[in-house]
Amino acid sequence: LSALGGLAAGAAGGMGVARSGAAPAPAATGEGPTTVQLAEHQRRAFHGEHQLGIMDPPQAHGVWVAMDLVPGADVTTLQRLMRIWTQDIAQLMAGQAPYADFEPEMTATTASLTVTVGIGPRVLGLRGVTAPRPAWLGPLPAFPKIDRLEPHWSGGDLLLQICADSPITVSHAQWVLTKEARTIATVRWVQRGFRQGHGVTNPGETMRNLFGQVDGTVNPVRGQDDAVVWCGSSAPRWLQGGTTMVLRRIAMNLETWEEADPLTRDTSLGRRQTDGSPLTGRAETDAPDLAATNGLGLPVIDEFSHVRRAMPDAKGLADRFLRRPYNYDDPPAPGRLTNAGLLFVAYQAELEQFLAVQRRLAEADLLNTWTTPIGSAVFAIPRGCREGEVLAQDLWA
Ligand code: HEM
């Protein structure tokens, strides 16, 4: 028995864990494992001004599911689905099993679950949907120098972004929410991603992508830069309090990256791979000094480095946005060793904020040598719900 106890403690990172709501595990004594009550911080509140899964801290695992509405779908179909999803997402996030959940035991582990619902272009053309379709809601403009888009990673009428600190929680929520939509919508594509495992690094530590780079240092901060992300009064009413989302699937060639020496890697980024510090600074959070030159009079941060090209040009919001990327690492094609990359998820009040940067990077970015966008989708993310409201209800209200 004690050997089994030891194994269980090891699997939970050295701590015996009791689920809140479940019977608490016996308190630790002596040298034995410490008992931790999984608490409120593993539940995020569904109801609120904005949908979650955006400015709140990214969880370790995520899946993005695009669905297409069945032919003949109209506003009634949409309302039906949104009512079911609203109720069931709220329940799943609270750790309560929805009606269609036949494995309620799995729902109790909320693991900071968030489900974010997005609206694709075709929904705005459904019979009975009165809200205007914004001109930007459609495929991104082509970036012929870099794009090698595969159609099966693009488009979609509806999006579910499901994130949690347990892959089991993600998978279960995906099953519940997609199966209850099955008479109304079909799955178009599914993309899975991961960040650093929950609890294995210090809180607030920036994740690394699969090139090994510290990725996510500079980002808008919740409560401080909200206007970067949330649509304001200049947006159509149904989008106010919501946001715009871009998901780019970007393949990262680990086989050629392996051939790049540390100097090449750091030059292409403008930051050091070792600790994420800018080439002109010492700490990860030091601001890059774009004016600094070396002994030859050349810029220390290369003109074509990723960071220089991606940094905001203008003051204000014009080219800032929130990045919430996840790594992917899928089975390689026959004869290949890897199939890895980034699910580059960007949120911004106006799509143009993202496009301004994407245009600069598509034009010239040393990192493009090793990266290739192979999927691209754009969704409108409606505002959050108050008690009694339905997700996306402004589309027909
Ligand atoms: C910064 C990696 C694609 C926009 C960074 C940083 C890394 C990185 C390591 C520096 C640390 C940080 O601030 O996060 C990558 C990789 C990509 C990729 C591996 C593709 C696989 C993109 C794309 C965009 C973008 C497609 C936008 C269209 C930015 C921005 C910054 C940044 C805005 C922060 C710049 C600043 O203000 O300092 N990226 N990135 N990145 N990246 Fe990327």
Keywords:
11 strands; five-stranded antiparallel sheet; alpha+beta; 19% strand; binds protoporphyrin IX containing FE; four-stranded antiparallel sheet; 9 helices
Biggest sheet: strands, sense, closure?
Answer: 5 strands, antiparallel
Task: Give the strand content.
Answer: 15-25%
Mean pLDDT: 90
Number of helices: 9
Number of strands: 11
Radius of gyration: 22 Å
Shape designation: globular
Q: Which structural class should the secondary elements be placed in?
A: alpha+beta
Q: Which small-molecule species are bound to the chains here?
A: protoporphyrin IX containing FE
Helix content: 10-25%
Distance between the termini: 59 Å
- Unreliable parts: 1-30
Order of helices and strands: HEEEHHEEHEHEHHHEEEHE
Q: Secondary-structure blueprint of this entry?
A:
Blueprint: H1 2-11, E1 15-18, E2 34-37, E3 61-69, H2 75-94, H3 104-107, E4 114-119, E5 158-164, H4 167-179, E6 185-194, H5 226-229, E7 243-252, H6 254-257, H7 262-269, H8 306-310, E8 322-323, E9 326-329, E10 340-348, H9 351-363, E11 371-381
Bound molecules: protoporphyrin IX containing FE.
Description:
This protein has 397 residues and is of the alpha+beta class. Helix content is 20%, strand content 19%. The protein contains 9 helices and 11 strands. It has helices spanning 2-11, 75-94, 104-107, 167-179, 226-229, 254-257, 262-269, 306-310, 351-363, and strands at residues 15-18, 34-37, 61-69, 114-119, 158-164, 185-194, 243-252, 322-323, 326-329, 340-348, 371-381. The strands form 3 sheets. Strands 7, 8, 9, 10 and 11 form a 5-stranded antiparallel β-sheet that branches. The chain has a 4-stranded antiparallel β-sheet with strand order 4-5-3-6, with helices on one face. A two-stranded parallel ribbon has the order 1-2. The longest helix has 20 residues, at 75-94. Bound molecules: protoporphyrin IX containing FE.
